[in-house]
Amino acid sequence: MAIRVPTRQLFIGGEWREPILKKRIPIINPATEQIVGQQAHIFIFKMFAGCFEYYADLAEGLDAKQKAPVSLPMETFKSYVLKEPLGVVALITP
């Protein structure tokens, strides 16, 4: 059984709603470079800007702690913490 999806609406909070902005973004097939549909433009970048700023500040804080000495009970030993990237990671935000 196929469910009909309204082409000009967004599914928000369990209901189909009209987008606030009427601007549409074309959906392009990368194989043929032809437009196969349109998507409503969702203006939520200001919300994400604050999120990215917050985590960027946390990352800068980690850089400040690089090679910070670790206190040990014996003065004859010295220890430092060095944080290095593991590689490529994925981030999924709700």
UniProtKB/TrEMBL annotation:
Coiled coil: none
Domain of life: Eukaryota
NAD is among the record's keywords: yes
Keywords, in A-Z order: NAD
Residues annotated as transmembrane: none
InterPro entries: Ald_DH/histidinol_DH (IPR016161), Ald_DH_N (IPR016162)
GO molecular function annotation: oxidoreductase activity
PANTHER family: BETAINE ALDEHYDE DEHYDROGENASE, BETAINE ALDEHYDE DEHYDROGENASE-RELATED
The family this protein is said to belong to: Belongs to the aldehyde dehydrogenase family.
Name used for this protein in its record: BETAINE ALDEHYDE DEHYDROGENASE
Species this protein is from: Salix purpurea (Purple osier willow)
